User: Fold this.
Amino acid sequence: MTIQIDNLAPGEAAKRLGPTVHKIGGTSMSKVDAVMANVIVGKRSGRDLYNRVFVVSAYGGITDLLLENKKTGEPGVFALYAGSDNDQAWGDALTKVQARMIAINTEIFNDEMDRQIADRFVQERIKGVHSCLIDLQRICSFGHFQLQEHLLTVREMISATGEAHSAHNTTLLLRRRGIEAAFVDLSGWRENEQMSLDARISAAFAGIDLLKVLPIVTGYSQAADGLMGIYGRGYSEVTFSAVARIIGAAEAVIHKEFHLSSADPRIVGVDKVQPIGHTNYDVADQLSNMGMEAIHPRAAKGLRKNGVPLRIKNTFEPDHPGTVIDDVWAPEDSRVEIITGLENAVEVEVFDQDMVGLPGAGEETLAAFRRFKLPIVSWSMNANTTTFYVEAPLKQVRRVFEMIQKSQPEAEIQTRKVDIVSVIGANIKSPTLIADATAALCDHAIELFAVHAPARGVDVQFVVADGGYDDAVRVLHAALVEKTGNVNTLAA
Assistant:
């Protein structure tokens, strides 16, 4: 039976077939044997292997080599290409990527023929990327063409090589096991036609019978409006969400190397944290705001609007049901689900006597943050002062500072580094929560600067002195989770 995507209303496919769409992150993808044993194959056989779709990320570290290191900023192929007048540096970096990809092939393929096929795939892609970059440099040596205008497209093409490599390898490994796997390349490689994201995915799946074929899909999808320019390096989750939405998935599943837990086990201790079990998309949004993405917020929006629940599972605990995120979970009892937050945030305080009684006061200040595309974690306002909390390099904050000072010359502006610890849950409207939390922080001599508690009752943010993050997380987890036992459980 072949799915006729265009004829299905949202959710209709899920009712008929109940396919599930899975995403495997880069760190998990690098553990090839574990992914095969725990996620893709496991104890399944025959029909149980199918009616699933897997969207895969590049192997761990590959995207850093292709673009730039996400943590250290060390330049990869793209960063070197964008900032260099010669091809030596980026060419060497691209050669390094090819060598690493082939080394991965050597590690994971026992069959010599499969390894040779995988190596040829890498060599052809890398050669194609190299040729394209050389040609673009040559064209842009003429005054009519500017390299800067093409860099976003270049970034996407380079990055897509990582997902194509891992998806192609996974398909080969499954076919060697006798599984009817299909390599679904959404990267637009050597395709002339520009398509929207939905159109490209629909076209790729139009001839696939999910009951007989197991699609392995690239996490990057080429789209006419560009994914990376809108979503940054979260594009694989957007692709994953779009696939789930378009085929009418019954459930979307993300496989990570850890559970979505009540706190970071590296801070609180593995023996003290617990998987959340069940929560809603409102909580997922708050996690994204704190930089701890269960899923990219724009990806979550697509699932939420189409009524597709999301399950977060630990790759290395396949029998654990994980945590389900949906749009209906609304617990009657108040309970804290997770303690997380941001280290090294910056507080920007703007005092301006002219704000008092002025309609739209604070708009000029907000305009400065928008001008430099600096996301605001939270902010508050009283008669003459607006205070903003952001996570950004000090260089960016300084630019905002200068723009505010220019537009409001009478304003007094102060900045300081702080840590933000957020208490999050689908229902945390307990009348004693803030008192209990504040008392716990005070008892442990943790300096508290501010508390933000929106009326919606899904998060409370505690702003503490810089350097107090780990201690604050431990203290609040002990007071609000461990002592109460308020952690959800979920049946499989």
The chain has two domains: 5-257, 338-482. Confidence is low (pLDDT under 50) at residues 1-16. The domain at 5-257 is CATH 3.40.1160.10 (Carbamate kinase). Residues 112-139 form the longest helix (28 residues).
